[in-house]
Design a protein that fits this description.
The structure is a single chain. The longest helix is centred in the first third of the chain and has 18 residues. The protein is an alpha/beta fold. The protein has 22 helices and 8 strands. It has 4 domains: 79 residues, 2-Layer Sandwich (GMP Synthetase, Chain A, domain 3), CATH 3.30.300; 194 residues, Rossmann fold; 73 residues, Helicase, Ruva Protein, domain 3; 91 residues, DnaA protein, C-terminal DNA-binding domain (Chromosomal Replication Initiator Protein Dnaa, Chain: A). It has a 5-stranded parallel beta sheet, sandwiched between helices.
Length: 475
Amino acid sequence: MTSSEQERWQRVKNQLRAELGEDVFSSWFTRMELETVDEAAVRLSVPTRFLRNWIQSHYSERVLSHWQSEEPGITRLELSVRSAAIRPVAPRPKLPEIPTSAREMQGIAHHNGGDLRANVPFMSVHEALGGSPLDPRLSFETFIVGRSNTLAHAAARQVATSRRGDALMFNPLYIHAGVGLGKTHLLQAITWAGNGNDRKVLYLTAERFMYGFVSALRTQTTLAFKEAVRAIDVLVIDDLQFLQGRSTQAEFCHTLNALIDAGRQVVIASDRPPSDLESLDDRVRSRLAGGLVVEIGSLGEELRLEILKSRIAAACIHHPGFEVPAPVLAFVAKSITHNGRDLEGAVNRLLAHSKLTGQPVTLEMAEREMRDLIRPAEPKRVRIEDIQRVVARQYNVSRADLLSSRRTANVVRPRQVAMYLAKVLTLRSLPEIGRRFGGRDHTTVLHAVRKIEALVGNDNALAEEIEAIKRQLQD
């Protein structure tokens, strides 16, 4: 792949980010990679079938259009599911599909002595119930702990080492973070650790949960599906933000309530806190927020350096001659700041260069090979709760006042300013903003936005106040 093709791909991504907004782009396009470009077709890849199907259904024409603006000869967009990274992974048995008939479900129960929770080997339960594939590299032993993930790691360890019958310290455990910061690693580590105690742990991506439930609906075996999932001791759900469909979300809500009420552990990961999962029912968000909600922060330079050392040590097991000098490690750790996947990509590039060219890894080579991975810092994502808090402090009112029905002048103006800023600084819709301001109608929000827009043009003092609030929110 040429550098000019990479540059065109970067421009296409920038156009998609500007058109769709940061939240939509982060959810669907950050893991998309350019494979090849020829005279008529551009070929892109994503890591899961769910992402491929969703992008094909909702965004393929838009992506193709942006490519055609870069290269008019392109007439076709091809999306594939890419294979794993170049480092070898230990082989694992093929996982069967989630059972789709009552007879299959009864067979599993019969194999377990009539009880889906009987004491059988961990992986047989995980596989029999159609758990999502597990990566053997993602264990607690390979997880690098730093300041940004200490609490999440400790909470995950506590869940993993508990035994059936132990009192649950927090339920559900909800871990959220941006892309590539270690959510999936912790969730799979919890699942692998279940092999060492007497509990049955099931790891499912949101895509897999949806597939299982839809298959059960299609084959009229929903009761068997529900009984199987709710018999699990620890249910682990990854990428909850991708959960779609009203009936699937309703089933997830019932499953969540049934497991928690029965004293079973639930662990969930998402790319945002429960309050920002707008597509989910209020009751589900409330139940998720009622457990322990932990955020994994961005990776500090010291932690990035430790992750690089760990990845290189793992690569050296299969490639003994692979060496990365300390100055190169320091450069990569300082320059690549976004997430662990970029760091892993950097290691793969260094390894590929070393093996394919036979040349040693040098600082000059690393600077050349890493250029497209060194990205400018992304602007801070502003939340409606932050806006309400800062506006309330600015105008000496309480956040409860902003959400209340009070119509006094000292509350109405700050409320309108907060609604205006929510529209300007976030990607939330008018109905969602209204819901966050005490359940108001979207027309109320629209009125507030237009009112402040009109005032800002004529009132310099108000304009300066709003700019000062924006600076506080974006610092």
